[in-house]
Write a structure and sequence with these properties.
2 domains; binds 3,4-dihydroxyphenylalanine; 41% helix; alpha+beta; seven-stranded mixed β-sheet; BirA Bifunctional Protein, domain 2; two-stranded antiparallel ribbon
């Protein structure tokens, strides 16, 4: 019996050391089987119990049970320890370093031309104007005839056109929106509308593009004069370019306005003294305008003895070029993010 008790104690101390060194859960499990399993070392010794006397058997049994219990506890503690270490390792591996620089997400923005159009829309909305939009494919009547440009009128040559058929073309300006607006509103007045949109001409160089943008304006009411036109455009230019800007009206010719005028804004670079940008004149040409020709009003069904109107046409690219100091209009359509990113 003494021998058996010795052997049991030896197993206990050996197992304790071995378990203490384990660093892996599979290994721990294998060792548990080796010492405490059905065919394990502990059971192996107890097999010899048959030879013991009835008196000694319980003593050996008791010690064996105590050892089993102690070793189970050691194993369970070790198992917890290993589990905790594994979890710690996993957390360490998955840890997010919030101080690391992130991946930058590029943020887009409106195209500079869209920005100018929106800015001009806002200015006119603030003055009580409506905003209209019309088709880019027009008929000859709206684009020319209704604007006092009958077939064979020499002023048609000012606008080299893309024809789709004899009667249908890509609109060469936004002025057909005057004809459309009047047709929709007559005999109602006052009319106060601006119409932004794309227009098309057979032109292509640093300052002309086959497609560009205009904003048409039309006002019809009683007692409308050139002074209203000038006052309106001055306010718009000052809001767009700065409160110190001035405008000047030069006589010009458009078939659908009488009188017609070319409107210049004072140069912002030299303040009107003259520089390279304004070709030493102190002024920058910015838009065409005039009093709506009585014949245009009459063709649309308005009584030109009772009502007057003024109209104007902005070139959006021209305004953007002046506002941002751009000398080649083609950059607006190149889609080069290096350029677009500047805005
Ligand atoms: N439609 C003209 C053009 O594209 C610009 C223009 C001039 C519009 C005078 C107008 C205006 O409304 O009154 O050249």
């Amino acid at each position: 019996m003494e021998q058996m008790l010795e052997a049991l104690k030896k197993i206990e101390s050996e197992a304790k050391t071995v378990f203490g060194r384990v660093s892996d859960r599979d290994e721990l499990n294998n060792l548990r089987i080796r010492y405490l399993g059905k065919k394990g070392e502990l059971t192996g010794i107890l097999k010899g119990m048959g030879k013991l006397s009835g008196e000694d058997r319980p003593k050996v049994g008791q010690l064996a049970n105590e050892i089993r219990q102690t070793l189970e506890e050691v194993i369970s503690r070790k198992s917890e320890e290993l589990e905790e270490a594994a979890l710690k390792q996993q957390i360490e591996a998955e840890k997010i370093d919030v101080t690391l620089a992130g991946t930058k997400i590029e943020c887009g923005h409106f195209h500079p031309l869209t920005r100018i159009i929106d800015e001009i829309k806002d200015i006119f909305l603030g003055m009580g104007y409506e905003i209209g939009e019309g088709p880019e494919i027009e008929n000859d009547y709206n684009n020319f005839e209704g604007l006092n440009l009958p077939k064979d009128h020499p002023a048609r040559d000012m606008q080299d056109s893309f024809y789709i058929s004899e009667d249908i073309l890509l609109r060469t300006h936004t002025s057909p929106m005057q004809v459309r607006t009047m047709a929709a509103k007559v005999p109602e007045y006052p009319v106060k509308v601006i119409c932004p949109g794309r227009v098309f001409r057979r032109d292509d160089d640093a300052t002309h593009s086959p497609m560009f943008h205009q904003i048409e304006g039309l006002v019809i009411d009683e007692n409308i004069s050139m002074a209203d036109l000038k006052g309106t455009l001055l306010k718009v230019m000052q809001q767009l370019f700065g409160p110190d800007r001035e405008i000047r009206l030069r006589p010009s010719y458009f078939p659908f306005t009488e009188p017609s005028t070319e409107v210049d804004v004072s140069c912002g670079i030299c303040g009107g003294k003259g520089c390279r940008t304004c070709s030493d004149s102190g002024w920058l040409e910015i838009l065409g305008a005039g009093m709506v020709h009585p014949h245009v009003l009459e063709m649309a069904g308005y009584d030109s003895t009772k009502l007057q109107g003024f109209a104007f046409g902005f070139g959006v690219e021209r305004i953007a070029m002046l506002k941002y100091g751009i000398d080649d209009l083609r950059v607006f359509y190149d889609n080069d993010v290096r350029f677009l990113g500047e805005f």
